[in-house]
Design a protein that fits this description.
The chain is mainly alpha-helical. It is elongated. Helix 1 runs antiparallel to helix 2 (36-57). The longest helix is centred in the first third of the chain and has 27 residues, at 6-32. It contains 2 helices and no strands.
Length: 61
């Protein structure tokens, strides 16, 4: 694996942080939702964005 430049590292960190913010937002919205189908959909979005963040984190290892 090649070494990331500082600019690439910063972009990667920003993207991971953005994904983590989305996870928190979707989880918060799911907790507020009354309809179970909407809760499930929002939790699914949170899971998908957590997977994105986890995948991006592998580039930092």
């Amino acid at each position: 694996m090649s070494t990331l430049t500082s600019k690439e590292l910063t972009a990667l960190e920003d993207t991971i942080n953005a994904e983590q913010v989305l996870v928190k937002k979707y989880k918060a919205m799911a907790m507020l939702a009354q309809d179970q189908a909407i809760k499930d959909e929002l939790n699914g979005y949170a899971t998908k964005h957590q997977q994105h963040a986890s995948t991006l984190l592998t580039f930092l290892q």
